[in-house]
């Protein structure tokens, strides 16, 4: 049985709780980077997957999945990998299908998860632009960072203009989600560019932070409780100390990859609530460990971070074939602590 909604929200509001809340999330579509407008079955897999997931696990809050809507539509642009073509980018209308269909998806997911505190993903403009630079069926995800850096080095002004448009468009998504759904908040996913040409404080301060703040300020204008996800998927490294000015309320990062455990991260972010603790890779304890190892790690995490404003989960999306028993072992150990 899930914890009462009120107790879960206490943790999210940085209060001491009797039981530390737990949740994990995973993709349900075969390829989360697929375009739902080219393959409508992605949406069906998303919805049916959420239905079964809720039945199978007693998690305490829901971070719903955006499978099928990862590709930003780039209205007016035929090839988002072409700098000249990117000059033709047209901002999305408020009623653009890509916006309104995300709202419809979130409403349906809301009905599935019921009373659980629920957060839905909004991706950073940099992530959306870099993902558009590769064929996800043929190229590794980190190749997108190299191609983004190539693009930026050729014409930084053009890239910054495109990012500004996407940032404003993501703000439209946020407002539409507030108006049309009952989600509790936004899970804002951002990540440093994994290429040495742009993985530096100068680029972060000049480009990434201002763009991220456009979206985050809109998020905070619309929702009171939101999660900053500093994404470490596929081993991506982030300089966590660069993100401390980001204004969202709850912080989630790759504790092992970034080398910052939950308790230490809580201090780094001014005693804000923290979420995570488990490595989400196929080499991580959550995927490979025994029941004893996984449950001991739960106790270790709570010993280190405490029970005030602490929520257990993973660095990011867990692999599709992660045994559900492993996830339930975490929930059990957190209940018993």
UniProtKB/TrEMBL annotation:
InterPro entries: Methanogen_methyltrans, UROD/MetE-like_sf, Uroporphyrinogen_deCOase
Domain Uroporphyrinogen decarboxylase (URO-D): from-to ranges: 79-337
A Pfam family annotated for this UniProt entry: URO-D
PANTHER family for this protein: METHYLCOBAMIDE:COM METHYLTRANSFERASE MTBA
Protein name per the record: Uroporphyrinogen decarboxylase (URO-D) domain-containing protein
Annotated source species: Limosilactobacillus fermentum (strain NBRC 3956 / LMG 18251)
